[in-house]
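pasting for the record
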Amino acid sequence: MKIRLLLVDDQPMLRLGFRMVFETQPDLEVVGEAGDGAQGVAMTRATRADVVLMDVRMPVMDGIEATRRIVESGSPARVLLLTTFNLDEYVFAGLRAGASGFLLKEVPPPDLLTGIRAVASGDAVVAPQVTRRLIDAFARHLPDPATGCSPADGRLDQLTEREREVLAEVVRGHSNGEIAETLTVSEATVKTHVGRILTKLHLRDRVQLVVYAYETGIVRPGQKE
């Protein structure tokens, strides 16, 4: 079955460019376009979209509020936020609103396509540079394991040595491609490992994995590499 896409952006030429890229993919189908967030919310219901590509800054209703309304409506659609502005206020607000991912519009087309498919499958997608800042932000609010406030979690014992290595790389904010290069394995292998790690630790996505890593003392606040 094709992934049904809804494009929500106030720039018609940008929507056209996205449509041209997506229509070359046999597993993707653009089912509608909207020029502002309010239209996007209404069309999400009308088109039964699987994934909504949502701009952040738009007239009438911005992408953050539109995302919040789509999620609160109980829609099964997943929202992937796209923006030219790499600002923490957008990242944090978007993820709190329930977005399944956050990518910059300058992302290469292959990475955007990968992100769409990942979001459609239930995964979360966050640009690596954004993940790094999320890590730093969470670190300021979580207890330091050195104080004894965050005991180790027994679920970690289920991980293999290779899965622990992959986990460490994910926590550093590295993409699957970067992890594959570091560990000298294929990206597909990395993706499989990440999926198994999430399953074993009962976590939903990579963002939860980062929080978990701090809470259990896998890394400590302020630790970079």
